[in-house]
Amino acid sequence: KEIYSFNEVESTNSVAKFLAKQGSPEGTVIISETQTKGKGRRGKKWESPSGGIWLSIILKPDIDPSKAPLITLATGVAVARTLRGMNIDARIKWPNDILINNKKVCGILTEANAKFNTVEYVIVGVGIDTNLNVDVLTEDVKKRATSLSVEAKIEISESETISNFLNEFEEIYDLFKLEQFDDILYDWRKMSQTIGSYVEIKQPLGKVLKGTAVGINNQGALILELNNGKLKKVISGECTLKE
Ligand code: BTN
To answer: In angstroms, what is the span from residue 183 Cα to ligand 1's centroid?
Structure first.
């Protein structure tokens, strides 16, 4: 499998998208030391100085587009497993943040391109703060962010972390291709920080929902028990843990 490694790109997801369109096969990995236009979810900027792992994987799964969100959950499981393998107590916040001690250490941005109800390619972008000095981040990001070296109190080997992650990813992606979604979701729930917590979800159009997160369904949607006792399925939104 091909790994492209750069010192600086605008965004590994953008490079991956370009290569996927040019015919690069499934499993191609793009890694960069820094990104000048790192992309976060909901059009946010993702600060990407050196000291982090910024990578994207090209996937070309033969699936129904509705299954694509599960790739994000599966990737979260792969990252959490990688960190747990380093004795770090990583937890997953719905839909796809990895937290250590309630602070974000990793974000995942999945971009899928569907045509005529088939998936052309899926780009999975993963950003992990490894040896990043969080003080270099902007004020509001800094408050909520941490890095592996801060939490583990040792310098982290980026190459080792990348190879462990790619192994974990391959393992879980094989389950995904076999449509063993229950196994993926089982692990996700086990490592979830969200389930059982009282949360606030800011939905894309600005509406705020409050309630207890009681589960996720087979599509990766969050199930909330609202204050009036009713259950509500939430497909996307910004989740804040309240306790
Ligand atoms: C989030 O908002 O939590 C998602 C952040 C995803 C960042 C990664 S870094 C590698 C890849 N390339 C990008 O431009 N974004 C993703």
So the answer is: 25
